[in-house]
Amino acid sequence: MNFRAKNKPESVGFQIAPMIDVVFLLLFFFMTSQLFSQWESQIDLQLPSSDTAEQRPRAHGEIILNVMPNGDVTVHGETLQPDAIRNLLGRLVEQYPGQPVLIRADERTPYRELIKVMDLCRLADVWNLSFAVLQSGETGTQGLTP
Fold first, then answer.
1. Using CA atoms in the order 62, 41, 117, 59, what is the torsion angle rounded to 10 degrees?
2. Is 143 domain-assigned?
């Protein structure tokens, strides 16, 4: 018995379609991961420091409220008025009870401005609040939570 094929199979050659699919999937993955990895660190805030600050992973779906020294509050790079912030937080809590909110306030922000933002969170029934700070001796704007 002869088990050898008499005709050699032709080489398939380079398949470009699967390669294009893989490249587009990689492109899509890196674009979406870059979008979600941004920590709103592009906002130039000088965070206060704390001796007891600990690094913790960012919670899924966490909303970041950036409180500027002049009292402006930005969310996703957009400055919002108090009513808009309350409506946004209210809608989020309605859909996702226990929605985590991170407040990043500049160290020069007056205390009254921070209290206004905390009051908006209370009115929207947000109870899962944390504050971004730096560890003592650290420089930068990213922040940790105590």
1. 20
2. no
